[in-house]
Amino acid sequence: MYSLELRGVDKQYAGGVKPVIALDDVDFAVEPGEFVAVVGPSGSGKSTLLNVCGLLDDPTGGRRLIDGTDVTNLSERERTAARKESIGFVFQDFHLIPTLSAVENVALPTAFDPGDATDRAADLLDRFGLGDRLDHDPTELSGGQKQRVAIARSLINEPDLLLADEPTGNLDTETGEAILGEFERVRADGVAVVAVTHDELVEEYADRVVELTDGVLSGGVRVDDRERDGDGNDSEAADPDFPWLAGDGGEP
Questions:
Q1: DSSP character for 238?
Q2: Could you say which DSSP state residue 112 is in?
Q3: Dihedral angle sign, alpha carbons of residues 110, 164, 217, 10
Q4: Is 118 exposed, middle or buried (0-12, 13-18, 19+ CB in 10 A)?
Q5: What are 189-215's pLDDT values in tens digits?
Q6: 3-class secondary structure, 123
Q7: 112: Cβ contacts below 8 Å, ≥ 6 apart
Q8: What are phi and psi of 23, to 5 degrees?
Q9: Under a CB-based contact definition with an 8 Å cutoff, are residues 128 and 96 in contact?
Q10: CA 177 to chain centre
């Protein structure tokens, strides 16, 4: 079963006489523990692809599945719950709250959950070598340390899929290698990683590099997977017990 799968996904935006085609019949699949790098020129649709994968935007056509469950047509509330349950995000600019400490930033996604996630947040930071920086605010951290905090935050809800937007874009080579090493540790826990990048260093660490050009994705599904599942449209979708999926248009 794939952690994430797109089947024949299109994404169009209204624009002048003709719609703008951001994604064109995209097939894409990522297995648990796999690291896929998405490359392509600026304006090729990479950010749109990441937004569709992360349930931040809906496709115009096609299907989107997480862990075998179709999540193409969820309500806004269901999408929000699904993201929290299954997906972590890492951004190029870190998006840390400057008035919060490192441990408070990591625990922030659980702010409205029952219980206190501070201990888990501290454990994650310790795992990433920041056990002595728990109470430091972002202004007291280096770029690499900020990115480690951001990765720890993305893992606080134990996601199955990690989406990264230019994760090494603001880092020097040595720090970038250290961050990609952290992704290796994440993958060892079975978390799938998809990174949009212009950095050749990221490509070196990835299991697979796929290219997006003018909305058309090359190499989105492994050849052996196509041979196993035919065109990918006949494979059985699993029906895990996702608490956020309550049926047709239901609320979680």
A1: P
A2: T
A3: positive
A4: middle
A5: 999 999 999 999 999 999 999 999 999
A6: helix
A7: none
A8: -130, 135
A9: no
A10: 19
Q: By the 8 A CB rule, do 57 and 79 touch?
A: no
* Closest by Cα among 5, 12, 13 to 71: 5
pLDDT greater at residue 242 or residue 132:
132
Placement of tokens 């239901």 in the chain:
250
Structure tokens at 113: 């959950």
**How far, in Å, CA of 179 to CA of 201, rounded?**
11
Retrieve residue 47's tokens: 């950010």
Distance CA 85, CA 206 (A): 25
Which one-letter amino acid corresponds to residue 101? S
State the pLDDT at residue 245: 56
Domains of the chain with CATH codes: 33-63+73-210 (3.40.50.300)
Contact (CB, 8 A) for 87 and 55: yes
